[in-house]
Structures are given as C-alpha cells and as structure tokens.
Amino acid sequence: MPRKTVARTARLASIPLGVAGRAVGGWGKRLAGQSAEAVSAELSARTAEQLFAVLGQLKGGAMKFGQALSVFEAAVPDELAEPYREALTKLQAAAPPMSAQVMHRVLAQQLGRGWGKRFTEFDDTPAAAASIGQVHRAVWHDGRRVAVKVQYPGADEALLSDLRQLQRFSRLFQPFAPGMEIKPLLQELTDRMVEELDYRAEAGNQRVFAKAFADDERVLVPRVVASAPKVTITEWVDGRPLASVIRSGTRDERDQAGRLLSEFHFSSPARAGLLHSDPHPGNFMLTQDGRLCVIDFGAVARLPEGLPRPLGMMTRLSLQGRSAELMELMRDEGFIREGMRLDPDHVLAYLAPFAEPASVDTFHFTRAWMQRQAERVGDLRGQDFKTGRSLNLPPQYLLIQRVTAGATGILCQLDAQFSMRDIITRWQPGFAEEE
C-alpha cells in the first residue's frame, strides 16, 4: 500500500491530468473526422478504467471514496453512467492484494509469532479486498470456517492523506453524485474512517449486532471469533454478493434483497442501538436460506434511543401536505438555521418527493426515479435547488442521511419493488403516530 504522501498525491493527481489529456486528444480526433459520440464514448471508457485503477491500487481513503460514489451511479443518466458503472462496481468488492509475506508479517504482529497454530487451514490468496484491509479464508483450530480480515500496513497514514488530496479534486467527481455535495461527503468519510482503523472497535460493534440478530429469520450477522487492533476473525458465511444480484438477479431476488436491506437498516437502531453506516453492495450478501448477511461494522451511528422520532414526523407531515407544521418542526430540529427565511410550500415541495416510497402500498425503486430526484434538486435554475441549498443538516443526522441516501441508491440499482411503507410504519418512530 503506497504510504508516502508525495507518491499517493501523484497517483490521485493523475486522474484529472489524464482526463485533461484525453480531452485534448479527443478534440484532435474530432478534427480528424471522428464523430463526437464515438470520441465521447472512448473518453468515458478510458476515464472509467483509470478511475478504477488508481482508486483500487491506492485502497485507503481513495478506494473508500470510490465505494461511496458507487451507490450513487443510479442517479446518473444512463448515457453518462454506463462506462463508469462497472468500474465503480468493481470497487465494491475488489482491489489489488498485498503479498502473502506482508500479510503474514501483520498477522505475526497482531496475533503473535505462533499465529499459524490457531488455524488448521489458511488460504494465502485473498477472498476479497476492502478499502483498508483484505479477507482470507481459513479454518479455526476448532474446525469452524472463518474469515480473517487483515489491515493493510500504512492504512492509517494513507487514509487521511487520500481524503485531504481528494478534497482538491472534488469537482471532478461531482457527476457521480448529482444533488449531493462531494466536499461534505469527503469530510464525513474522513471523520468516520479514523474510527474504522481500530478493528477491535469494529469487532465490538459486530458483537452487538450479532447478539441483536441472533437466530433471526431474515438477517445474519457473522459472529466474531477473535480480534486484534489490525486483525478481525469472524465466522465465514457463503452467499451471493448484492453486486451479483444487481447485475443478474431475478425479480424475486431483487425484491427480496431490497426488502431485507431496508428492514435491517430501519430495525437495527431499535434492536441494537446502532445503525450500520457503510451502505454499499460489497457489505451485503443473500444466503442460500434467504437471509441477508451483513458484514463490515467499522462505521456505525450510535442511536441508543433508536431512530429519531422527528424523522418519522417529517415524513408523515410531508405526505399529508402540512407545510407550516413541517417547517416548524424542521426549525426546532436545526434543519433550518435561526434567522433563515423560507417559504413553507417550497420546503414541502422539496421534501415530499423523497417521502414518496412511504406513500403507497408498494413502491418500485428505479434508476429513472432516482435520476428525477437528482435532476430536480441539482437544477441550478430550479426552486428545489435554491431550497436545498438553504437547508442545514444537523450533525446528529449526518450518518443517518448518508445511510438513507446510500441505501436508496442500492435499492434503485436493484430495481426493487416492495412495501417500504410497512417497514417505516413498524420501525420509524413518529411516522404512524398522530398528535
């Protein structure tokens, strides 16, 4: 994992430089008679290839940022997104691995020189790679199949360096997340990634989730076997990655995955007091017995009182068209800063479409729906853009908003159709209650 700031900065800088160089080359090809469409398609494909190569090789904050962007590709118009879709999806589950020698050294540092005696089998070839670590198949000394996650050496140094540098290039990535500001996303990633570096804390989070969902018929959280600051060992689970369901799942699989994902996110604050806050398809699988397997608990929001009641109330007031009460509640909760003057009807018009999935018995999450929302709030000339820019996101709602946006992106990638209203009615305080 490249550690030095100069080396990592040079690689990140190669992305905008490469884009600029290809643009100049494309201009020359147009002069030579090639069609604008052909040149544009070639530029997009090559840029996507470079984006994956650079972010994937750097891992760390760069790869984490790529994963965060990947769930928003559903909001990008198809003619622009297609070349990037596969490149970004690769970042959800794959990256160039570290060598077996380096990995063994980390295991010896974390588990002791005799670490190998703890396993009856250990596969040096990584089964998966994440943003700050990679996963290996193994068999624990008691015969259990386990997943061993090993953190990349230098991940801590590289993470913050990446995210600082990515701030400089944030405008380049804006097309991947229309309607969202990239800089705040990067800042929030920076804050959360420091927490994710300590695998002991992640193991503690996972233990809480595993206990809360023990023997659950819908959700499976692998139990933690052992942990250290840079190594986590959990029970191995076989399943179909959500990226595979997105790519080629049947209608039933897509609907089931979407429903289970939503139930997990809405129910876990009430059941575990925590909210899984890293929503991208690489962290979820469908098991053979029809459950949703959830992994990677490094980023969580602590919600000991469950989901905030005002969120359910805001959704209900939006659907009921009660603009004055909605705006008053938003002022009380800090979504509208003191002294900010807004038209209640404009605020309602901005929020109501986002509440649409809770307005019907069955809602169909599609890329077209998400694209409409992105175009609506991202239109610089529209009222919704002006309203959105005037609203505030209180710190206590930041992670909840990230999970909601990321999970909605996944639902639209899945093209899932199910009753979101039933889930919100059961698990979101304030939604089904009348004052």
Automatic annotation (TrEMBL):
Residue intervals of the Protein kinase domain: 105-435
PROSITE patterns per the UniProt record, alphabetical: PROTEIN_KINASE_DOM (PS50011)
Family annotation (InterPro entries): ABC1_dom, ADCK3_dom, Atypical_kinase_ADCK, Kinase-like_dom_sf, Prot_kinase_dom
Signal peptide: none
The UniProt record lists the keyword Cell division: no
UniProt entry tagged with the keyword Transcription: no
Record-level Gene Ontology MF annotations: kinase activity
Keywords: ATP-binding, Kinase, Nucleotide-binding, Transferase, Ubiquinone
Alphabetized Gene3D superfamilies for the sequence: Transferase(Phosphotransferase) domain 1 (1.10.510.10)
Family: Belongs to the protein kinase superfamily. ADCK protein kinase family.
Designated name of the protein: Unusual protein kinase regulating ubiquinone biosynthesis, AarF/ABC1/UbiB family
Phylogenetic classification of the source organism: Bacteria, Bacillati, Actinomycetota, Actinomycetes, Pseudonocardiales
